[in-house]
Here is the input.
Amino acid sequence: EIAEANAAREAGAEELRRATEAAQAASAREGEHVERYRRVEEELRETGAALEALLKEKSKHLDEREHLVDRRLVTSTLSQCLEHIASGQRALAK
Here is the structure.
């Protein structure tokens, strides 16, 4: 009877040890998953912020582009005006 009780106690202790090890391993894996999730969330926030900045920059560029005048057109028009003034045709220059 005592031998059976000791054997049962040892079996219970072994089962408890295995369960404790399994719980510790699960806890470690959970910690790794939590850390990975945190990094993914941070990367997502950074990516969102970068995308927002790029969209603002693109919008600003498109807004400014509407008001730009072609440099070649201005140069050509100025050249023609100067030619008209030089040839005495002020009315055409205006």
